[in-house]
Amino acid sequence: MKKYVERLWNGLIKENPVLVLMLGMCPALAVSTQAANGIGMGLSTLAVLVLSNLVISLLRKVIPDQVRLPAYIVIVASLVTVTELLIKAYLPDLYKNLGIYIPLIVVNCIILGRAEAYANKHTPLLSVMDGIGMGLGFTVALTLAGALRELLGTGKIFGAQILPEGFGMTIFIQPPGAFLIFALIIAIMNAIGIKTRQRKLVESGCDGNCALCATASSCETKPAEKAAKAEKAEKAEIKAETKEAKPAEEGGAAK
């Protein structure tokens, strides 16, 4: 159960596709003018991501490596077409607001990236949980950015007036506003992450960031690697002792 929850947490926080990995920034910047648009785009991407991960994981042993990327694109394109038609039929206002960015989900690097990096190597259930986590992370990032842009730009959230009438800084509902809002959110996340790592460093002497640690190769927080190295050294020592014992035995036999 822990590994399934870890996939959700990974997509929402640790490897949020927009706020950490910086993937899918084109639709994120373009459609996050309103919170409703962010939810609509995020949930559309989530549905395609979950289904594509599931199908690709089920077919991972069938699809030849030489044509896996074209196969992924065909699968994703089919799912996006179905999603686009459903949105057009049942949510025409959302379809009008999102426009070309719905069919462009086909080439969204989040979907192709998770297909290649995760679904192609793991079981269907784990791949589905990874898709849900990444999709929720994408949805939360777009909705948060859209709500902030809508609030600061028009004084409203989901069309409801929150700030006084006439309030609004139009720059936030224009393209530059998207960069400002995402920069603000990412800066806050980085600040929180730095404080968390500093606290871990004080408490345990390790901030958990092994990629940037000069002593990571001999770190005490890697028990599995340390045990493997110790086992390897022990085997080498036994082998050396065996080699030394053989000549002695042969000499005794000769006498």
Tags for this entry?
single chain, 255 residues, mainly alpha, two-stranded antiparallel ribbon, flat
Biggest sheet, in brief?
2 strands, antiparallel
- Topology pattern, helix = H, strand = E: HHHHHHHEEHH
Estimated structural class: mainly alpha
Number of H/I helices: 9
Question: What is the number of beta strands?
Answer: 2
The tally of structural domains comes to 2
The global form is flat
Residue runs with pLDDT of under 50 for 5 or more positions? none
Percent helix: 55-70%
Task: Tell me the fraction of residues in β-strands, as a range.
Answer: under 5%
CA radius of gyration is 26 Å
Give the N-terminus to C-terminus distance in angstroms.
Answer: 65 Å
Strand order of the largest sheet: 1-2
Q: Output mean pLDDT.
A: 82
Q: How is the quaternary structure best described?
A: single chain
Describe the structure.
The protein has 255 residues and is mainly α. The protein folds into two domains: 2-204, no CATH class; 222-254. 70% of the residues lie in helices and 2% in strands. It has nine helices and two strands. It has a two-stranded antiparallel sheet with strand order 1-2. A hairpin with a 2-residue loop joins strand 1 and strand 2 (160-161). The protein starts with a helix and ends with a helix.
Summary of the model, kept short:
With 255 residues, the protein is mainly alpha-helical. 70% of the residues lie in helices and 2% in strands.
